[in-house]
Design a protein that fits this description.
Residues 150-268 form the FAD/NAD(P)-binding domain. The protein is an alpha/beta fold and 558 residues long. The chain has three domains: 4-136, Protein tyrosine phosphatase superfamily (Protein-Tyrosine Phosphatase, Chain A, Alpha-Beta Complex); 149-253 and 408-553, FAD/NAD(P)-binding domain; 257-406, FAD/NAD(P)-binding domain (3-Layer(bba) Sandwich). A hairpin with a 2-residue loop joins strand 1 (4-7) and strand 2 (10-13). Helix 3 (73-85) crosses helix 4 and helix 7 packs parallel to helix 14 (454-472).
C-alpha cells in the first residue's frame, strides 16, 4: 500500500485490498472513498469487499466511481460534497491515485490558490498539468479560452522583463511582444539601500509601469496562474489563456516574510525594518537617525537572496552615520548571518573586514532568524554551525534590519519549468530552458549559479534577446553568459567596494584598475552608484541601450 498524503484532510493511493483496510484504520483515517469503478482490472477487488471490511472496523465509506480520464465538473462537486460530509481524515483511492488527486484538486479550486493545489499534489507525486486550466477556473471546465497569441511572451515587468523586451525589440522591431505583469508601479530596487541610508528619497525609485513598457510592446496587466509549456500557453488568473511562439520567464523572487514567525506583525514598528520593501526603507533611516544607544541587529537569511550584499550594506551605512555622529561607542552592532562567510568572493573580504572593525560590529555566522517578538524586542535565531547540534538563541534588540527569506514565486515552483529546488531550469551559458527549447529565463528566478542582482539582469537581457533573435532567424544560440554580477557595497557614505564577479567567483571588473579598483573602497564607485547607475537604469537598460552589456558571442570553435 502506497499512501500519498495531500494534506491533513485527505490522502490518496493506488488500488487497495481488503487486507489493507486495517492498516488504514490504524493510521487514523476515519473514511474510505473509492473513485475506481468495479471491474476495471482483472485483479481488482470489488468496492463491496472493501466496504465490508471498513464497516467492520467502524470506518465510513463512499463509492464515487469515475471513468479514467473523464472527470466531469459534477464529479468534482460530488467529491467536494463527500469531503464535507465524511468524517475526516479521508482515504481515497483509484487505480493509481491520480483520479482521486484530480477530484480533490478540482473540488478545492474555489477555496485554495492554484499554486497551493499544485504544490500539494506535486508533493504527493501527482502532476495536475492536464487540469490546470480547470483549477485556475475555479474547478470548472472553461467554456471560452479567449486566446491571445504573441510571437514572444515575457512573464514579469521588472528590471529583467522590461530590459529584455526592449533589447529584443531593438533587434527585431516587427516582433509582437507581450509583457505579463499585474503591478502598477515599477521600482528601482537597488536604490532602496540608499533610501535606508538617507541618501535617496523613496519616490525617486518608483515610476509607473505604463511609462516604462517599451513602445510597441503589449502590456497585459494580469498575474500568471500556471504554465502549459507543452501547449505553448500561459494561464492567467481568471483562466484567460495567452499563447506564444517563445516564452521568456523573469518574474523576480518572492519575499517570504511569513517564514519568520511574528515578523509580519511587527514590520514597520517596534524598531523592526527592512530595505527590501519600498515602504519600509524610509523607516530604516528614521531608526538610524533616532538610535542613541543600544543594540542594532542586521540579519541575513540562507542563500539564495537577491543582492546578497544588501543586508551588510544597511549595516555599514548605519554604522557610518553613528560613527560620524559620535554614537558608535554606545551602540552594539551585531550582524546575524545564516551563512558562514561575510561575502562569497574572497577578494573583497579584506576591505569589508576593515569596516567591520571600524564600526566594531560583531559577526555571528550560522545564525538564521526564525522568530521575532516586536513588543518584547527580542529575536530568536537557529544556530546551526557545522558538525555541531543546532541550538536556538534569543537576542534583545533596540533596532533590527531584516532581510527576509526568499524563494521563487509559487506559480514558478509548482510549474513544469522548475527544477527540483523550484527555480526555472536553464542552461547557465545560453539561459535557454533545458527541456523546452522555446523557453528562456533571466533575472532572479532562474537556476544559473550567479549572484541575483540588477547588474546581472542588465547583462543577461541582451544575451537572452540575442539568443531569442537567433532562434527566430533559424539559428543556434550565439551569445553566452559568464555569470556576471555586481554588488556595490556601500561601506560608508561616499565610498563603495565595487564587487564585480562571474561564475566561480572570477573577478570581472568593468574598469581598468588604475581607474577603479573594485577591491578597495573608492569615491569613484560611490559616484557610479549614486549618480551614474540610476539614469543608466531608467534611460539605457530599460530602453534596450546596452551600455557595458554587449553580449559575448560563442566562438566559432566552441
Amino acid at each position: 500500500m502506497d499512501i500519498k498524503k495531500i494534506n491533513d484532510d485527505i490522502s490518496v493511493s493506488p488500488q487497495i485490498s481488503p487486507a489493507d483496510v486495517e492498516a488504514i484504520a490504524a493510521a487514523g483515517y476515519r473514511s474510505i472513498m473509492c473513485n475506481r469503478p468495479d471491474g476495471e482490472g482483472a485483479d481488482q477487488p470489488t468496492f463491496e469487499e472493501i466496504e465490508v471490511k471498513a464497516k467492520a472496523l467502524g470506518l465510513s465509506v463512499q463509492y464515487l466511481p469515475i471513468v479514467s480520464g473523464k472527470v466531469q465538473d459534477s464529479d468534482a462537486d460530488a467529491f467536494g460534497k463527500a469531503m464535507r460530509e465524511l468524517p475526516g481524515p479521508v482515504f481515497a483511492y483509484c487505480r493509481t491515485g491520480t483520479r482521486s488527486a484530480t477530484l480533490w484538486s478540482l473540488s478545492q479550486a474555489s477555496k485554495l490558490t492554484p499554486a497551493e493545489i499544485l504544490s500539494a499534489t506535486k508533493a504527493a507525486g501527482y502532476d495536475m498539468a492536464g487540469v490546470v486550466r480547470r483549477i485556475v477556473n475555479g474547478g470548472k471546465t472553461p467554456t471560452d479560452e479567449g486566446d491571445a497569441k504573441f510571437d514572444v511572451v515575457v512573464v514579469g515587468g521588472g528590471a529583467a522583463g522590461i530590459a529584455v523586451s526592449a533589447s529584443l525589440r531593438s533587434r527585431l522591431p516587427h516582433l509582437n511582444i507581450a509583457i505579463l505583469d499585474p503591478a502598477d508601479i515599477h521600482y528601482y530596487q537597488p536604490g532602496w539601500t540608499m533610501v535606508g541610508g538617507g541618501v535617496f528619497e523613496a519616490q525617486t525609485t518608483a515610476r509607473t509601469m505604463g511609462s516604462l513598457i517599451p513602445n510597441g510592446v503589449h502590456w497585459i496587466k494580469a498575474a500568471v496562474a500556471a504554465f502549459e509549456p507543452e501547449n505553448n500557453a500561459v494561464i492567467l488568473d481568471g483562466c484567460r489563456v495567452v499563447k506564444y511562439d517563445r516564452l521568456i520567464v523573469c518574474p523576480g523572487l518572492k519575499l517570504d516574510w511569513h517564514k519568520v514567525d511574528g515578523l509580519v506583525e511587527t514590520l514597520g514598528k517596534n524598531g523592526v525594518t527592512s530595505n527590501y520593501r519600498y515602504d519600509l526603507a524610509p523607516y530604516t533611516w528614521e531608526l538610524v537617525k533616532g538610535l542613541k544607544g543600544g543594540r542594532a541587529l542586521f540579519t541575513q537569511p540562507p542563500m539564495p537572496i537577491k543582492c546578497a550584499g544588501a543586508p551588510q550594506k544597511a549595516m555599514y551605512l548605519s554604522g557610518d552615520h553613528w560613527f560620524k555622529n559620535g554614537r558608535l561607542k554606545d551602540i552594539d552592532i551585531q550582524f546575524m548571518n545564516a551563512g558562514g562567510v561575510l561575502f562569497g568572493v574572497k577578494d573583497y573580504v579584506p576591505a569589508l573586514e576593515e569596516y567591520v572593525k571600524k564600526y566594531d560590529a560583531t559577526l555571528n555566522f550560522f545564525h538564521n532568524l526564525i522568530a521575532v517578538d516586536g513588543k518584547a524586542k527580542t529575536a530568536t535565531f537557529k544556530v546551526a554551525k557545522p558538525d555541531t547540534e543546532a541550538t536556538e538563541v534569543t537576542v534583545e534588540f533596540d533596532m533590527m534590519h531584516v532581510c527576509p527569506p526568499q524563494t521563487a514565486p509559487d506559480f514558478i515552483r509548482v510549474s513544469p519549468l522548475a527544477d527540483a529546488a523550484g527555480w526555472v531550469d536553464v542552461d547557465q551559458n545560453t539561459l535557454r530552458h533545458k527541456t523546452y527549447d522555446n523557453v528562456w529565463s533571466l533575472g532572479d528566478v532562474m537556476n544559473a549559479p550567479n549572484a541575483k542582482t540588477a547588474a546581472a539582469a542588465r547583462m543577461q537581457a541582451p544575451i537572452v534577446a540575442e539568443n531569442v533573435a537567433a532562434d527566430i532567424r533559424g539559428g543556434s544560440p550565439v551569445a553566452v553568459y559568464n555569470g556576471y554580477g555586481s554588488c556595490p557595497l556601500t561601506v560608508e557614505r561616499g565610498k563603495i567596494v565595487l564587487a564585480e564577479f562571474g561564475y566561480g567567483g572570477t573577478l570581472l571588473p568593468s574598469f581598468p584598475k588604475w581607474l577603479l579598483d573594485g577591491t578597495k573602497p573608492t569615491r569613484a564607485a560611490w559616484i557610479l552608484k549614486e549618480q551614474i547607475l540610476p539614469p543608466v537604469y531608467w534611460k539605457a537598460m530599460l530602453r534596450g541601450k546596452e551600455w557595458l552589456a554587449k553580449p559575448e558571442h560563442v566562438s566559432a570553435n566552441s
